[in-house]
Amino acid sequence: MPATILSMDEIINAICLHMAERKAVRVADVQVELSWEEDTGYTAEVWIQGRSQYLVESNMIEAVLRYVHSEYGIRAYREDVRLELDEEITAIVNT
Fold this sequence. Notes:
The chain is α+β, with helices and mostly antiparallel strands. It has 2 helices and 6 strands. α1 packs across α2 (57-72). The protein starts with a strand and ends with a strand. Pfam families: DUF2653. This is DUF2653 family protein.
């Protein structure tokens, strides 16, 4: 079973695209910062038009799923995706 690995930049792009579509703004108007904390796990802070919002891991995975479908033509499911932290945060999509 091959895996597709998304870099931290691709995860950020996925979240930017996802949030721009959901909030009806331009992708360039979305800023994202990823983080991992022991007590909260993976999160993304998103800034749109001066407002900040936090996404939890499940929201991040939803954005990754949409991204791999639109960019790679991969139809994956939530259980096929896991986020990992090494030097940076990556997403592993098992297909």
